[in-house]
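Lab intake sheet, docking and co-folding queue.

SAMPLE TYPE: protein with bound small molecule
LIGAND NAME: pyridoxal-5'-phosphate
LIGAND FORMAT: SMILES
REQUESTED OUTPUT: full 3D complex as structure tokens
PRIORITY: normal
SUBMITTED BY: R.K., bench team

The fields below were copied directly from the construct record.
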Amino acid sequence: MKGMIPIMEPDLSGNEQKYLLDVIKSGWISSKGKYVEDFEENLADFHQVSHALAVSNGTVALHLGMVSLGIGLGDEVIVPNLTFASSVNTIIHAGATPVLVDVDLETYNIDICQIEAHITARTKAIMPVHLYGNPCNLEAIITIAEKHNLLIIEDNAEALGSTYQSKLTGTFGDVGTFSFYGNKTITTGEGGAILFKDSNTYEHAKILRDHGMSPDKRYWHDHIGFNYRLTNMQAALGCAQLERIDEILARKKQIAEKYANGLSKIESIKLQKTDAGAVNSQWLFTPTFTEVSSKELMNFLQDKGIETRPAFYPLSSMPIYSSYKDGEYSISEAISKNGLSLPTFPTLKNEEIDFIINAINEFYD
Ligand SMILES: *Cc1c(COP(=O)(O)O)cnc(C)c1O
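RESULT FIELD (auto-filled):
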């Protein structure tokens, strides 16, 4: 194989250039312009919901989602211990306190059986994260949330196109958030979005996104807001990307199936398991490689020109988050130690997948 196979690569081969050029020619390069509205409408239509709010990135999507729901000082938010730091940082940015819960060995997602033990009088919300695209057990989470009167912040940054009981993830929570960073399923360079259960929350978040300024009276502020807007240039990319979402998702599914078949002979490679009734959109195909050192495997593949990506560190293992620990985290630690993501992007060629599978088999031999 010539050159390096990256872990991820955006596919900008559709109308991306055309729409971006259109924006530049129009002069509407900031956050006013038709592509922002089109992107929001297309994203809402794809999810069969009435509103989507485009924002600057997936991190502020989480922050704005929580603030618009009134989550803040004194509140606790339950969050998995194995996720990107952004999930937890934004809880802290909102003034609330994250409570770290260990994950499930098979799905890598928050351990449903451990959630209730972490609920206190101050618990305000649960933040399920669909790790690597794999949907959480939303039925169980919704049942717990209803029983204890909790909000749900669905961190759907990695799961665009995943479904649970035939419904797209990101539509289950009081808010559902997305990231369009360069390595995500679709990208706008930097970007994010929020879906809302309640249209009043959407209206409120829309005002907060734009400095808290009154929509009826310019430069009159009723709220202390933010500038979390997406630019028309970014939205132009988003519109072009969304046009090809079905194609992108279909290819990622094929890639994951090819990996699963190719690695099935090695028993100690465990694939991330998806709950019955759920479909993983395969953001990143991430098995755990037990009985070998995943670090050695990573180096071995690197030498062959294959980039891989280590699983997240458990948040509990980093001193900066130690005050949010609440119990043991042996499962997050195990997945973190053995998990390795393989290249999972739509333009990855079949012969490259075969090459990767052969290299892994060779390492095990
Ligand atoms: C990518 C990601 C985010 C943050 O998105 P950005 O657009 O990079 O700010 C949040 N949560 C999870 C789980 C992510 O993977």
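REVIEWER NOTE: The pocket of pyridoxal-5'-phosphate is lined by residues 57-59, 83-84, 86-87, 129, 155, 157-158, 179, 181, 192 (CB under 6 Å).
SIGN-OFF: pending second check by T.M.
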